[in-house]
Design brief:
The protein is an alpha+beta fold. It is 38% helix and 29% strand. It contains 4 helices and 9 strands, in the order H-E-E-E-E-E-E-E-E-E-H-H-H. Pfam families: Motile_Sperm.
Length: 208
């Protein structure tokens, strides 16, 4: 009687946690080994549980032992077979519901939904996954590059004040270096434009 009283609140609530693994089944059309999957139901409680497996599309699947019992602190494997593999079912999501109740009770104490999907190919899925990862990496690289290019103009604008002056000075210095040095008499350039070696050195220094 004491035990009965202890677990009575759980029974009344009707939302007993159900521990089942996995919670998603993926069947691959091109891989026969995936057409049979196993659900494991765990019973961590002090009392035995009855279970029942329901499905939204029972015609597609064969459930071995769709009803049964799990002893306290034990687990049970439920085998689910996909028996109608066809292209029109690719990507369709079906649902299984696993209901549990206590041996002596009729009402469901708890339930868990498991989704099932049929996909055309495990290889295709792997390729898609790899392509997606590649796209994400490229996108990250692009965004980093984009951030860098965005940051650079700020640095330039900070130093844009002297930049025009620098360019002008550079042009003047290049012109100065191209002009003939004093003492070159056979030059076509008028004498007043002839620069001394020192003036050319200054121009070269400024350029540098």
């Amino acid at each position: 009687p004491m035990q009965q009283q202890k677990r009575q609140p759980e029974l009344v609530e009707g939302n007993l946690p159900v521990f089942v693994f996995p919670t998603e089944l993926i069947f691959y059309a091109d891989d026969q080994s995936t057409h049979k999957q196993v659900l494991t139901l765990y019973n961590p409680y002090e009392f035995a549980l009855k279970f029942k497996v329901l499905c939204t599309t029972p015609n597609k699947y064969a459930v071995v032992d769709a009803t049964g019992a799990v002893k306290p602190q034990c687990c049970v494997d439920i085998v689910i077979r996909h028996r109608d593999v066809r292209a029109s079912y690719y990507g369709v999501i079906d649902k299984f519901r696993l209901q549990v109740s206590e041996q002596s009770q009729r009402k469901a104490l708890g339930k868990k939904e498991i989704i099932a999907t049929l996909l055309p190919s495990a290889k295709e899925q792997q390729q898609q996954k790899e392509e997606e990862e590649k796209r994400i990496k490229e996108h990250l690289a692009e965004s980093v590059f984009f951030e860098q290019t965005l940051c650079q103009p700020e640095n330039r604008t900070a130093s844009s004040g002297p930049s025009l002056l620098t360019v002008f000075l550079g042009i003047v210095c290049i012109a100065a270096l191209m002009l003939p040095t004093l003492g070159e008499m056979d030059s076509l350039v008028p004498l007043y434009l002839h620069l001394s070696v020192n003036q050319k050195l200054v121009a070269a220094y400024v350029l540098g």
